[in-house]
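Sequence only, no structure available. Ideas?
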Amino acid sequence: MTPAHSRRASPLVLWRSYGFGLLLLALACLMAIKPAQAQLRVDISGTGATQYPVAIADFAVDDAHGRALAEVIRADLTRTGQFRLISAAGSGLNVDSPIAHDDWRAKGADFIAYGSIVRGNDGRYDVRYRLADTVKKGQLDGVAFSGTEQELRRVAHQIADRIYEKITGVRGVFSTRIAYVLKQGATYELQVADADGQNPQVALRSREPIISPAWSPDGSKLAYVSFESGKPVVYVHTLATSARVPVANFKGNNSAPGWSPDGTQLAVALTRDGLSQIYIVSAAGGSNMKRVTRSPGIDTEPSFTPDGRSIIFTSDRSGGPQIYQTGLDGGDARRLTFNGGYNISPRISPDGSTLLYVARRDGAFRIASLNLSSGSENLLTDGRDDQSPSFAPNGMQVLYAAIQNGRSVLAGVSSDGRVRQTLSVLNGEIREPTWGPFTR
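Reply:
I predicted one. Tokens follow.
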């Protein structure tokens, strides 16, 4: 058989592949997580409806590390499109400095973040940060961190999370992780990286494509589909140890895993009884499973709703692929999408209010969102072949795969479609992205 993925498959090919099991993933080579070599470049366009003016001063005392810390924080906030950075160059602030609120207000900053970083005798770095509100003329936040030199980037993400939440009222996602498949030459790697695409680590390597990675709710595991035994099998892979368990190894195709909110079960698509249908299996493995759907069409791509009471999935029971919702006991499924004749790859927002999916409109595959209360649809992207949408755990951003200059790249868009970013790997192609959960 000629490899089906010598080039990137279209959503139509993926739909048929999920339904009839034409994707072959062979000879997977598992290993402990280790650093990856590919480097990413980030390009950002657009601004949010509201932009908060904030100054981020270089952290004092250790100049080199203080500058690097502040640069990561600035980059995190800039990527959201919700902040307008005010220069704090030459401010000379340290964590104990008094803040001239009126002077910063005159410079246009409603908020100023500043701090100090000091290397202790044990080689660890003590980081103290403050956030001042220049309008209310008071301290809005202050906290201390400790970490090794290798952990300072994580500390910067944690500070950016706090700044984001204190100013917007929404929890920040800069400390979370993402997973995606990187294709370099004839090799495919399942990688885990920081939310900004930095610090990539290899979790799984294969000479054939890797598909359907899905995060466990606690962020410690990834489920995926492997064909190494000669047929598609769903595995659960523990990232810290690379230990894995086959959780769906039934007759026919086993595909498209989606975690239950409590992490104990997976919804999967199986062809054990004929056409692809939705089943529930234990995340710990074993032979027990429960059938959810019984339709004359192909049912696939299941995902649990946040309350764990129902499943969203794709089905062609009405002709073309559309998105449906059903209870865990099956029964009549409710159709959710009616615009256009082709809607696939459903994902639900963390609060359960919005549906995310790939919609074919005017011959192009775009990422769309649907307000489940009003039925209003919003096309978030304008690419020709956008795929694999995934919500950030705060619901404010969307991760997806796009085509840029003929290559597959990792892309992001704000949930209102106003701010877009592209993470381009310098020596490979990225696909199948999924955003990890909050872990602390």
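The CA atoms of residues 348 and 355 lie 5 Å apart.
Hope that gets you unstuck.
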